[in-house]
């Protein structure tokens, strides 16, 4: 079943099926984790954003940058929801990624595009150039607020 409406382009999550599994090296996964902590201030290794990214096979910065606005807006994560009938096995409920978390991911993607397209800083080649303070400033800028309107 498709979630798109007439006139919308398809996204990678349009079909009601499990997302394809992605593979990444441990270095790629660590880099993604570091950028999410540095850029988004995420401290929970198993919080909603990490859970949603894992669920959708996002294991590297490259796969994160491959997500577009609609992909992120449709992300869900598995939230703990007590225990199963045996009282031991954890139970999970699929929930929509909170809008604030969606916005953080969207702004991270647009910031990287902004740095590359508008400022000529290709931080995709050297993630040590990533400036968390510049990202925070960008998030409140008029450009960030209007880029995906």
- The number of helices is 7
Terminal CA distance reads 26 Å
Strand order, sheet with most strands:
1-2
Helix content: 40-55%
Strand-pairing-aware structural class:
mainly alpha
Cα shape? elongated
Point out poorly predicted stretches: 1-24
Main sheet, how many strands, which sense, barrel? 2 strands, antiparallel
Total count of domains: 1
Radius of gyration: 16 Å
Q: In what range is the share of β-strand residues? A: 5-15%
Q: Order of SSEs, N→C?
A: HHHHEEHHH
**Extended strand count:** 2
**What integer is the average pLDDT?**
77
Description of the molecule:
The chain has 149 residues and is mainly alpha-helical. The protein has one domain (26-146). Helix content is 44%, strand content 10%. The protein is built from 7 helices and 2 strands. It has helices at 26-40, 48-55, 61-65, 69-73, 99-118, 132-139, 142-146, and strands at 76-83, 90-96. β1 (76-83) and β2 (90-96) form a beta hairpin. The protein is elongated, with a radius of gyration of 16 Å. The relative contact order is 0.13.
Short description:
The protein is mainly alpha-helical and 149 residues long. Helix content is 44%, strand content 10%. The two termini are 26 Å apart.
